[in-house]
Amino acid sequence: MVGLQYDCLANPLGAVRLSFEKAVASGDGQAALQGKDWGTGQIFADFISENLSQIPIINQECSQRLRPNTLVRFRGMVQDALGSEFYIGAFKDGSVWRTNKYLDASQCHTQFDCSDYDIASSPDIRIWERRLIYCVPVPCYNSWSECSLEGETNSCIDSTSHSKEKRFREDSETVDSMVCDGDECPSAAKKMREDGHLSPTHAAGFSARSLDSGTSMLMNPRQSLLPCLVKTYDILESEVKLNDIVEFVGILSYEAESSENADEMIDEVASVHLPPGTVPRLHCISHRRLEVHDLIHSSVVMEPKSSLVRQIREDLLRHLTSILGNDGLTAHYLLLHLLSKVQARLDDVAVGKFSLNLTCFSKETMSAFGSQLSHAINSLVPLSHCMPLTVEYLNSASLAPKKDYETNRLCTGILQLANGSHLTIDETKLEAGTLNSVGVENVRLLKNLVEVQKVEYDFQFYKVEMQTDVQMLILSEGKSNIIPADVVVPFQPGLVNPMLHVISDELNAWRWYLATLRSSSHSIAPEVQKVVEDDLVSARQADRNLGTEDFSRCLTMGRLIAISFGEDSLSLEHWQMVKELERLRKERIK
C-alpha cells in the first residue's frame, strides 16, 4: 500500500508518516505514541533487501546530487558516541497525531513553545529519545576496497532523477503540508520548495571542511567518503560500539542553519560543534555491522572447498615468497600472520593474535624489499597502514584518542583503528635519541597494543582501555626492543625479484582467502590434543626456558596452519608443520 503512494527512495518520510497515522488509528496506537516501531522497519527492510544497490552512497562526488529527505547509504567507522538527545517525537495537530521521527527539527512550533520544558507533561506531546554517533571514513581504507564499495552501486545515482521528478514534487508537497502551516514553514523546507524542486545550491553538497579533528588521521587523501553524524533510533548501545565498521541506510537531512532550530529539541547535544552544511546528517532506519570479509568485492563468491583453498594457498605462498626474495620460511610466517585474528580473551591474554617481527632489515634491505612488501600487504588486506618509527615521530605523534571537554568531542588518535586493520611498523629509520614524555607514553601504548591488543583512551581525568584486533608487523634490523612481537623471524632473502603483475581474478581470490578463512572456526580432536600435549611436555623438559607464551604461540600456529588449508580441525600433519617451521626459525636465530 505504501509502495503505491510513496517512493521509499525519493520520499521515505512519506512512508514514515503514512505508516504512523495508520498505526495510531489502529489498535497499536499507544505503542506508536511511545516511539516503538510501528511497522516502518519492515517497510524499509523489504525495500532495502530488494534495492540496496540503488541507494546512493554519501561521498564527496555524489553529495552535490543528493537531495535532503531522500534515502541514502553510508559506510564508516564509529569514531565517537555523542550521547542522546530528547526530541518531540509525536504531537497532536488538531485531532490528528503527527510524528517528527527521522527529522532534525520539530515541526510543532506553531502550536507549542518548544523552549518550555514543561511541554513534556502536555497530553498532546510525546518526548522520545535518540542516540547521536559520529562516524568517519574507515581509517587505513585501501583504495581498491573503497572501489569495491562504490562498485556495488552506480555511485552517483540521482535519487530524484527526471523520471521521478514529478512524483517527488507531489510527495514533497504532501510532506510539506504536514510540517508547514501557511507561511510558518521552516527555512529548510522553504529552500526545498523552489518551483517544486531543489536548486543546485540547495542540494546536500558537503565540503572538505567536514574533515575535522574527529576524522581519522589515517584517511586515504584520495578517499572520497565523508564523515557523517548518524542519529539512531530503536538501537541498543551494544549493537553499535566505538570503532565498529557499520553500514547505515537512512534519511539524509538538510540542516542549513542550526540557530533557527536550536530551541526545538528538549535536550539537544548542543556542544557537538559540527557546523551544519559541512557534515551530513543521517537518520538511521537500518544498519548492519561489517567484518573484514564484508569489505571485499561482493562479486567474489567462492565456496571454501578444500581443493580450491589449497590451490589459492599455494599460489599466494608462491607470490609472498617471490616478494620476499625467495625466502620461503619468512613467507610461511607472513601468511600465518595475515590470517591471524583475536579469537577470545582470557584476562589480559588475547588468544589468536600473531604479531610478527622480521629482523635483518637494514636500510639497504628495506630499500630493496620494503616497498614491494608494503605494496603486497596493501593490495591483499582492505585496511592497512605503515608507521615509520623515529624518535621525532614518537615524540610528537598523537597515538591515543583524547577527550576534548571544550568541544565535548573525542579527538582521534592514530591507534583508533577498526578491528581487522593491519599495522606495519618500520623501525629501520630509528636512530639514537632522547624520548620526551610523549615519546615514552607512545612507546608504552605500542607495547600494550602488541601484547594485549588494547589501546588506552585518554579522558584527561582517567583512562579507559579499549579492546582492539590489529595485526602488527615489525620490520627492524635486530630484535625490536620497543615492540615485543609474538614471533621473531630473521629475514634471509636470496635475490630481488622483479615486481610481477598479478591478474585481478587471482588478486581477488587471495583477498577472499585471507578475509574469509581468518574467521573460520577451529577445533582439536582428543587424540591430536594428546600428541600436542606430550610434545609440549617433551619440549619443556629439553629446554627449561620455554614458557606459556611459547606454548601458546605453537597452538596459535597450529590453528592458523589448519585454517590456511581450509580445515576446521588440527591434524597431526599440521602439527608436524608447526614443529618444522619452529625448528627452521630457531636455527636462523642461532
From TrEMBL:
One of its GO terms (cellular component) is nucleus. It is found in: Nucleus. Keywords: Nucleus. It holds the Pfam family MCM_bind. It comes from the Eukaryota. GO terms for biological process: DNA-templated DNA replication. InterPro entries: MCM_complex-bd (IPR019140). GO terms for molecular function: chromatin binding. This is Mini-chromosome maintenance complex-binding protein. It comes from Kalanchoe fedtschenkoi (Lavender scallops). The lineage of its organism: Eukaryota, Viridiplantae, Streptophyta, Embryophyta, Tracheophyta.
